[in-house]
Amino acid sequence: MDAVTYPDHRTVDFIGRFMIAHREDITGRSALAAQFRVEATPTIVILDGDGIEHHRIVGFLPPEEFIPSLMLGIAKGDYAHRAFNRSLVMLDLILSSYPYSRPAPEARTLKQNCLQHRH
């Protein structure tokens, strides 16, 4: 991830616009790693503003898979907070920009749920 995904300008731009990133060294005893059950690296835990986990990524992903996975995590958090229109924005971005990514099928399902609950 350090060599390919994190330095990619698309990844940097997306994280800079939509997320607050925190990197934790888990080689020693890390309270955060224990709290969020991080057992392997890389592990990305997507939390909402209340510290509630909504999505987790474990293992290497190239930017074209990593970014839509981050988007899905944001959309799940918005969905959980009943911010269906905000969730739909991120889901539509996944489906239009990364239609063949691994998160796309889950994004389609979550989009249908948002549309049902929105009305």
Commentary on this structure:
This protein is mainly α and 119 residues long. It has one domain (9-118): Glutaredoxin (3-Layer(aba) Sandwich). The chain is 52% helix and 9% strand. The protein has five helices and two strands, in the order H-H-E-E-H-H-H. A two-stranded antiparallel sheet has the order 1-2. A hairpin with a 5-residue loop joins strand 1 and strand 2 (53-58). It is globular.
Summarize the structure.
The protein is mainly alpha-helical. It has helices at 9-18, 31-35, 63-80, 84-97, 104-118; strands spanning 43-47, 53-58.
Helix-strand layout with pairing:
Blueprint: H1 9-18, H2 31-35, E1 43-47, E2 53-58, H3 63-80, H4 84-97, H5 104-118
Antiparallel strand pairs: 1-2
Helix pairs in contact: 1-3, 3-4, 3-5, 4-5
- Net shape: globular
- Helical residue percent? 40-55%
Strand content bin: 5-15%
Largest sheet, if any? 2 strands, antiparallel
Structural class: mainly alpha
What's the tally of helices?
5
Low-confidence stretches: none
Mean pLDDT: 91
Measured between the Cα atoms of the first and last residue, the distance is 40 Å
Name the CATH class: Alpha Beta
What is the name of the CATH architecture? 3-Layer(aba) Sandwich
Count of extended strands: 2
Strand order within the widest sheet? 1-2
Oligomer: single chain
Query: How many domains is the backbone divided into?
Result: 1
CATH topology: Glutaredoxin
Radius of gyration: 15 Å
Order of helices and strands: HHEEHHH
Comma- or semicolon-separated keywords:
single chain, Glutaredoxin, mainly alpha, globular, 119 residues, two-stranded antiparallel ribbon
